[in-house]
Amino acid sequence: MTPPRADEDIIRQNILDMVGHAGSKYTPMDLEREICARQNISRKAVRRAVNTLMAENRLTYTQFLGHTFVEISYKRPVETGGGVILAPPDAVVTPRPEQIVVRIEAGAAFGAGDHPTTRMALKLAAWTFHDHILPKPAQNCRVLDIGTGSGVLAAAACLMGAARAAGTDIDPCARAEAAGNAALNGLTDRMEIFDSITALEKNSPGLPPFHLVLANLRYPTLVRMHKAVTEISAPGAVMIFSGFRPREQPELLKTYDSPRFDLLRTLEENGWCAAAIQKRP
């Protein structure tokens, strides 16, 4: 018997939620097995739902090291939360007044930015702008995005109202993608990309401190950069860290638990965490 339309819609939405919010990639077989177990439905129903999502350009197959994975397709816009829509270059998007559209060309740096750690960083960034947490009015704020990848966080911060953003990344492919995405969003004159904080400082003698520091990186790197972040951030600056696991959160927060910092907020999604920390004036 053919299941009701509503059941098919629920199956497809559950598949999108699993793939879009996963902490790791699913192979077609793993996805099929997981959905069957969770919803107690047949493999045939899952395959039919996946095929429909593929035809609608909502899912796509990707190849990596000889393996096939099922991932969200970035041929259509994706709402990440925090009033941010990530969209491919040629997508037609009609945002609501409170939303911004960040154009991202999906690439090797990290897909199109729709990962739990990216979503949480964007949500926290939007909150700092919306609730006026930053030490300066948005139009006067300078943003540093460490490990910028595709440049999505730096671009979003500029579109949220920041005056300027600098992104750093040791990967030359990521730097090229970030620069390209800055151009896609009309931010070439407001976003600069460097290979390191040291290179940024050499290029800008007398560099003024940053009011918002973004870092979507793994736990060891977030801990190691404590000293650099402290030195390069302005009094009252907000640091948004994402990319660490729940078990790592206590030690990370302990690293920044001093008379110089206050914890503002934490978020958790699908086994990943993010935190907003403020440097005291």
From TrEMBL:
<dbReference type="GO" id="GO:0008276">
    <property type="term" value="F:protein methyltransferase activity"/>
</dbReference>
<keyword id="KW-0808">Transferase</keyword>
<dbReference type="InterPro" id="IPR029063">
    <property type="entry name" value="SAM-dependent_MTases_sf"/>
</dbReference>
<dbReference type="InterPro" id="IPR036388">
    <property type="entry name" value="WH-like_DNA-bd_sf"/>
</dbReference>
<dbReference type="GO" id="GO:0032259">
    <property type="term" value="P:methylation"/>
</dbReference>
<keyword id="KW-0687">Ribonucleoprotein</keyword>
<keyword id="KW-0489">Methyltransferase</keyword>
<keyword id="KW-0689">Ribosomal protein</keyword>
<dbReference type="GO" id="GO:0005840">
    <property type="term" value="C:ribosome"/>
</dbReference>
<dbReference type="InterPro" id="IPR050078">
    <property type="entry name" value="Ribosomal_L11_MeTrfase_PrmA"/>
</dbReference>
<protein>
    <submittedName>
        <fullName>Ribosomal protein L11 methyltransferase</fullName>
        <ecNumber>2.1.1.-</ecNumber>
    </submittedName>
</protein>
<dbReference type="Pfam" id="PF06325">
    <property type="entry name" value="PrmA"/>
</dbReference>
